[in-house]
Amino acid sequence: MIQASKRAPFLLLAVAAGSLLPMQFSINSALAGELQSVTLTAGLSYLVGALALGLVLALLRVRPNWTAAGAAPRWVWLGGVVGSAYVVGSVVLTRLLGAALATTLVIAAQVLTALALDHFGALGLPRRTMNRTRTLAALLVLAALGLRLWGLR
Amino acid sequence: MSLIALIATIGAGIGLSAGLAFNLRLAAVLGSPLIATLVTFFVGAALLLGLWTLGVDSARPDAWPPLWTLLGGVLGVTYVTLSLITGARLGAGASTVAVTLGQVLGASVITGLGWLGQTAQPPTLAGLLSAALLLGAVALLAADRGRKQP
């Protein structure tokens, strides 16, 4: 573990990284407004991101291990398929509800899904069954959703 | 909340959580999380542009969109790269909580000020409380994931 003074810049960097996500929601939502198609919007967003990352990796001369990759189970390649549900879902939500509410809903759904995947040890994750801490986390998420959707009345 | 919003929420949440699990496995196989991200982005682009070509939500725009609206994916890969760096330095737990803090703060500022094409909506007390509860939930999950398995 590194010292607290050396951790601070990385904590700030992580906060900055997180703030990129609602920016991405908003920008993709603006693109969907221009194009009037969610599939084209999410596809172009992925393509531009892939080209940018490919350029950086080529400049850094990063080489993947394709031989080991060939021996892996086929399903590991399909992350982009479930990832597409995330991009399409976030575009639709941001168009309907705005970036603030869309962000809340996605974080809530993400935590609940993570709890379920851990509980069953799905997708090669280590199995971690529900306990008191995890139940409390789920309850906090539900309370957060309730507050967001119905407010303080 | 409408049915479309509900389906979109569930799709986005499952897509994000399951997508992370897929990416972890692919990164272990390829020996690089960034190459895994590159594969994921190309597969996503191929699937979605394929669906669009086949006629799913297939509106054909007649004008080129403003350049800034095309940069969402660049923010996506920047996010993945930064979160890999901070995750390695801070541990996954602390990094995840800080990222979530950035998410809710960023969302409040962008929506509050009406940036990036959003309709300005001032933050509400209920919205801020809700964000705090979510942060608490993320912190609890991160703490429990960080604990040694019995």
Model description:
Chain A has 153 residues and is mainly α. Chain A has 2 domains: 21-65 and 75-97, no CATH class; 99-153. Chain A is built from 6 helices and no strands. In chain A, helix 1 packs across helix 5 (99-120), helix 2 packs across helix 4 and helix 5 packs antiparallel against helix 6 (132-150). Chain B is mainly α and 150 residues long. Chain B has a domain at 1-59. The interface between A and B is large, with 113 and 115 residues.
Oligomeric assembly: heterodimer
What is the CA-based Rg of chain A, rounded? 19 Å
The helicity of chain A comes to over 70%
Q: Per DSSP, what share of the residues of chain B sits in E-state strands of 2 or more residues?
A: under 5%
Euclidean distance between termini CA atoms of chain B: 41 Å
Give a short account of the largest sheet of chain A.
none
Task: Give the helix/strand layout.
The complex is a heterodimer of chains A (153) and B (150).
Chain A: H1 4-35, H2 38-60, H3 66-71, H4 79-97, H5 99-120, H6 132-150
Helix pairs in contact in A: 1-2, 1-4, 1-5, 2-4, 4-5, 5-6
Chain B: H1 3-30, H2 33-53, H3 72-90, H4 92-113, H5 125-146
Helix pairs in contact in B: 1-2, 3-4, 4-5
List keywords for this structure.
heterodimer; A: 153 residues; mainly alpha; 2 domains; 79% helix; globular; B: 150 residues; 5 helices; 75% helix
Short description:
The complex is a heterodimer of chains A (153) and B (150). Chain A has 153 residues and is an all-alpha fold.
